[in-house]
Amino acid sequence: MMNVRSYSLGPIQTNCYIVSNKEKECLIFDPGEEAGRIIKVIRSNGLKPLGIFLTHAHFDHIGAVDAVREAFGLPVWIHEKEVSWLDDPSKNGSSKYAALPDYVVTKPAEENIIKAEQVFEISNFVFKAIFTPGHSPGSISYVFNQDGFALVGDTLFEQGVGRTDLLGGSTKVLLASIHNKLLTLPEDTIVYPGHGNYTTIGAEMETNPFLNGF
Fold first, then answer.
1. Dihedral of the CA atoms 128, 14, 149, 174 (nearest 10)?
2. pLDDT surpasses 90 at 1
3. What SMART domains does its record include (predicted)?
4. 27, 37, 69, 199: which has the fewest Cβ within 10 Å?
């Protein structure tokens, strides 16, 4: 059984997830800010990180990537459609906010660019990267079927859905992603979103007002 640690980080309180196994190996999802805090958590718990996975490349999800990557010598995975966003503040959104620095992140190695939906097997972590665009064109959800949870970025929230007024966003595409990719998961699947509280697929099917009438 995997252990999922959640940390709300940075000015927008973006959720970073550290998923670990019994061997204390871990994967890091969306290290968006506060690199020092992430590094301290990993070291203080004796964890051995194996990689960083990004649900998408908005600035609040990528801010600590370089520092965490360099601290542990980690590979980084991201959808091919948003590789160019990492070092382009106009695409990752940081340039829109005068109070924020421009977010510039080093691009990953070619072999870590996700070009198709795929199953990852890293040590005893087994999960699938599924494409859930709409909030952004390269949004990915990572589904741990055997462990009953999914990390969905800013695609689906408790009683909400991701915004679609940013670069490459589309409400129609977002709702199709949710209905065709996420709501087809078992209803007891725990949903870990990019912001706010966790929920379940069943709960959102029943009560999410944004999904009614699709």
1. -60
2. no
3. Lactamase_B (SM00849)
4. 37
